[in-house]
């Protein structure tokens, strides 16, 4: 569903050219449970931003379901992202002045598509499924890290995405809580057939996925 062809990402700082990603060719197929692994600074997040249509390459193409996204306007691009892609981050990125329920519903406020379901009911269902019903009206800074990450995953799911990108989703959690987050993502892949891409620097997390892509100094090495 996502294909990167000869993708480069470069920044010019003063007179020097920083090559953050070089000659990236990869394909993520529908239904995959896959990890991108590499040391800190290797370009994983940058690569995730390209795949998730949050940023555009300096060279090369990103195809989503065979559509060349470099040809799309900013508006079309954000529509596509909104409709098809969910994101989960290491820092959870919930908004503290909104309740858990309000955070989960946030993506629906910017959503230009008509939904064939009631997002409020969907949010309540997700809260129950993730064992967060008692946190529905809590504020994010009043609940645990594991609960915040489960709320963030619920937010990523509210518009029923085809693919979820999770950037170091267990990076701020203890090992045991991290494992519950991983099994939750695995479950979404198995039961709902949602394509899951996990970005990590930890080998034991990458080992849990079905396929792993290694990146080093902005290049795919395996
Ligand atoms: N906007 C930017 N301008 C300049 N350099 C950047 C920018 N974003 C990232 N980098 C650099 O690109 C490299 C890869 O960053 P990143 O993709 O965040 O790596 P990772 O997620 O693997 O830790 C790092 O050396 C980082 O400093
Ligand atoms: Mg990163």
UniProtKB/TrEMBL annotation:
Q: Does the keyword Hydrolase apply?
A: no
Q: Which SUPFAM superfamilies match?
A: P-loop containing nucleoside triphosphate hydrolases (SSF52540)
What molecular functions are annotated in GO for this chain? Answer: ATP binding; ATP hydrolysis activity; transmembrane transporter activity
The protein's matches in InterPro entries, at most eight in alphabetical order, are given as: AAA+_ATPase, ABC_transporter-like_ATP-bd, ABC_transporter-like_CS, MacB-like_ATP-bd, P-loop_NTPase
Answer whether the UniProt record assigns the keyword ATP-binding to this protein.
yes
What Pfam families does this protein's entry cite? ABC_tran
Which superkingdom heads the taxonomic lineage of this protein's source? Answer: Bacteria
Gene3D superfamilies named among the record's database cross-references: P-loop containing nucleotide triphosphate hydrolases (3.40.50.300)
**Mind listing the UniProt keywords for this protein, alphabetically?**
ATP-binding, Nucleotide-binding, Transport
Q: Name one GO cellular component term.
A: membrane protein complex
Q: Taking every annotated instance into account, which residue ranges of this chain make up the domain ABC transporter? A: 2-221
For this chain, the family text in UniProt reads: Belongs to the ABC transporter superfamily.
- The molecule here is called ABC transporter ATP-binding protein
């Amino acid at each position: 569903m996502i294909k990167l062809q000869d993708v480069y990402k470069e920044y010019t700082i003063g007179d020097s050219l920083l090559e953050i990603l070089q000659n990236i060719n990869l394909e993520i197929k529908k239904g995959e449970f896959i990890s991108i692994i590499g040391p800190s600074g290797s370009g994983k997040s940058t690569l995730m931003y390209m795949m998730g249509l949050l940023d555009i390459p300096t060279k090369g193409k990103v195809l989503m379901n065979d559509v060349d996204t470099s040809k799309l306007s900013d508006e079309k691009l954000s529509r596509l992202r909104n409709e098809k892609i969910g994101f989960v981050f290491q820092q959870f990125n919930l908004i503290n002045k909104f309740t858990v329920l309000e955070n989960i519903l946030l993506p629906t406020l910017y959503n230009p598509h008509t939904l064939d379901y009631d997002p409020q009911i969907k949010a309540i269902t997700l809260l129950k499924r993730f064992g967060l019903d008692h946190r529905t009206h809590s504020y994010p800074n009043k609940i645990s890290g594991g609960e915040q990450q489960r709320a963030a995953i619920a937010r990523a799911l509210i518009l029923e995405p085809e693919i979820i990108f999770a950037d170091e989703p267990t990076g701020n959690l203890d090992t045991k809580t991290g494992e519950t987050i991983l099994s939750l993502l695995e479950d979404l892949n198995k039961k709902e057939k949602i394509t899951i891409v996990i970005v990590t620097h930890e080998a034991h997390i990458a080992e849990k996925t079905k396929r792993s892509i290694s990146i080093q100094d902005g290049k795919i090495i395996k």
